[in-house]
Amino acid sequence: MTGMLAGRAAALLDTIDIAQGGPRRIGRLAAYDGLMLEATGFHQPIGSGARVIDAEGNACRAEVVGFRGNRTLMMALDSDAPHITGARVEPDSRGGSVAVGAELLGRVVDALGEPLDGLGPIAAAHRWPLAGRPGNPLNRARVTEPFDMGVRAINALLTAGVGQRIAIAAGSGVGKSVLMGQMIAGAECDVIVVGLVGERSREVSDFLATKLSGAVRQKSVVVAVPADHPPLLRLRAAMRATAIAEFFREAGLRVLLLIDSLTRVAHAQREIGLSLGEPPTMKGYPPSALGLIPRLIERAGADARTGGSITAIYTVLADGDDTDDPVVDTARAIVDGHIILSRSLAEQGVFPAIDVGKSLSRVMPDVVEPDHLRAAANLRRLWAAYEENRDLILMGAYREGSDPRIDEAVMRQADIRAFISQGQKERVDGGESVARLIAEFGA
């Protein structure tokens, strides 16, 4: 028996090539300010994972984010750990990739891929780079096929396409998350990936109970990181959700990716950038915070090689209802369409409170028929005529008959509001939306 064990041990040792190995570099914790960890003797590239052994002997995860002289700067992934000076810092090879696969469908995970739903561990068989794989822009397919969102105003007036990137911008409490839930319920896709980044913990459970219930849940993956988590976890949540969507797109599937909200991701990068000493620019955002937005959004789109696609929707919080906020402006410049929600419409009880005049789908002319496009342009013309003269009309300073265009806009205003309005649980498919638009507003 002893000889058999010795033979097996020798066989195992023969497979180890010591010449190809190297020393495992172990560092020591030199400083910690509550957010940033500094280690000496830990020479690892940016983006590498690390494990810091705290005073209780537990391994706390961190990520290398920069350098200061001969010290390595790391951002903690575990908050409120009892760190101690001189603590052991070990490399962690799991930092740069995420576990992906069909096993994730129907599950809820955190930024590190750990399950939150109490359904046991997830044995995903594949790995995907957290930051995505470099792509050739010529491999991106054109957006030529309409994507049914189940929302009449969007299907008819802001028609989305398969592989389009859309930003939903509004102030707080105007209905961004509700509109996103309507899109989830009505979308025709194979997989739904949702990133709930920096939201209230209550909203996470509410979102799962009301917007991802039933059959929709079984084809969905949710990555949730509430607002009280460290900034690096909030940033990694958005990147993990995007990486999961990229894996399913590579498999040739039609994916709907929703990130709520892109502003919280930018806020997380702002905290990281300022702690690293970056200079603040507009509204305190360092260059890295605004530079992160196009890098994240550009990972979505249609793939001409596999036939898969990621149709992405990003909610953007307009601080103080300012639609010229740096994050809103940066996102609007890189996406293929934007939906602006109006607080004024919401206060009038119009939901979804879509401001038709300020919203736009850049791919709509490529995915709809000419009669549909003419009817949408006619409704937008009536909308613009009313908004331009709203003050005169409400003050009674406008005299009927002065301008036939304004007369028609005033007369049709109730019809326009009724067309845009839709119940939260109501689903209107693309064909029905277009047919009603042409019947009521066709030229």
From TrEMBL:
Chain segments annotated as coiled-coil in the UniProt record: none
Keyword line: ATP synthesis, ATP-binding, Bacterial flagellum biogenesis, Bacterial flagellum protein export, Cytoplasm, Hydrogen ion transport, Hydrolase, Ion transport, Nucleotide-binding, Protein transport, Translocase, Transport
GO cellular component: cytoplasm; type III protein secretion system complex
InterPro entries on file: AAA+_ATPase, ATPase_a/bsu_AS, ATPase_alpha/beta_chains, ATPase_F1/V1/A1_a/bsu_nucl-bd, ATPase_T3SS_FliI/YscN, P-loop_NTPase, T3SS_ATPase_C
Positions of the AAA+ ATPase domain: 162-345
PROSITE patterns: ATPASE_ALPHA_BETA (PS00152)
Principal EC category: translocase
Domain of life: Bacteria
Protein location: Cytoplasm
A GO molecular function held by the record: ATP binding
NCBIfam families: fliI_yscN
Record family assignment: Belongs to the ATPase alpha/beta chains family.
Name of the protein this chain belongs to: Flagellum-specific ATP synthase
Lineage: Bacteria, Pseudomonadati, Pseudomonadota, Alphaproteobacteria, Sphingomonadales
Annotated gene: fliI_1
